[in-house]
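My hope is that you will study the protein record below before we discuss the fold together.
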Amino acid sequence: MARIYKRGKKWAYVAYAGKDPVTGKDKQKTKSGFLTKKDAQLAAAIFERKFHKGELIQPNKITLSELFYDWLAHYSRDVKESSVRARRIALKHILNEFGDMPIQKITKKTYQDKIDKLSNEFSTNYIESIHTSANLVFVYAYEMKLIKDAPTKGIKLPKKKDTVEELEKGDSLIENFLEKDELEELLLKAKTEGLEGDLLAFTTLGYTGLRIGEMIALKWSDIDFENGTLRVIKTYYNPTNNKIKFKLLTPKTKGSIRTLSVDPILIELLKLHKSEQELTKKKNSPFYVDNDFIFSTNEGHPRTIKHISNRLQRLLKKTYINKHVTLHSFRHTHTSLLIEVDVHIKEIQERLGHSDIKTTMDIYAHMTKNLKKEASNKFSNLMKDLSSKISSKHEQKHEH
């Protein structure tokens, strides 16, 4: 029970605040300056209730940098290295501003001001990434009872404002996938003018919709030639693009672990590549590192994402395709082709390895926008005769 007493002309209270974890001695909370005895009693009662419910936030001088490293140690246990790296990069902007500041002194206002300032420098998506990462750290501090509330709570993030140029350009997702004839053009160029491995790489991406990291991580043990399938159980991670400093991680989500039926032409290309790779192994046996990778260099190391991306851009220059095409575009290309042949959205979700069907639905919605024009053209062809008659009658009417 708190002791209420008068100090000069004002009132104060002293209450039990637990034991010091270092010394083991009892701690006390003292607060003064109350105008009446009743005010002091009420404040003491609130303090004791919070203390007994475990809601009391003890003063501390922990800085944001200290908190960050403590949080990171916990966060790293359950996520991939790529996720840890992404959080580190995003959080550096917040740490640069508040790193040396005690977390209990970081207010919602100062945090909002920093977000507003950063929004003038970076894209809306990147600001969201920064805020999401910072929120994880502050929520951790709140759960550890180090702060009364997270300053990231209720923050207003900048809304994306489309420019006239962006609106005129249209949806970039629609622009970035290849039509069937464009995919054909690219693959034929890869066959006739590409380097060894180009045709197999871009056929695999276009015919399966694999993420580039999933494709590079493929090993021969993942291919079932008899049943015409490939399995996805890992992904390639190499932020430095150093061919020997790579890691194989588990796939992006649980839904990403899957087995795909593949087209016979891809099985044929894989068999041909396997026989050619065997010759390379024998030729380069003194220095060949055989780790069973399908998409490997002449030394046996998996090809880097940068290398395959460069090959794509060089091949695109040899075609008539005038689009900003990336390696990820092949996933949208594959999706559009599946939609075109009326594959059910649930099957598309499983094939692409999306854990959440909302992701598939979003892509589906973008893709079907492009098909609306095709539907209009088909309708026009269907009604061509009638349209012609309507047009001729219209002309005759004006002649008379």
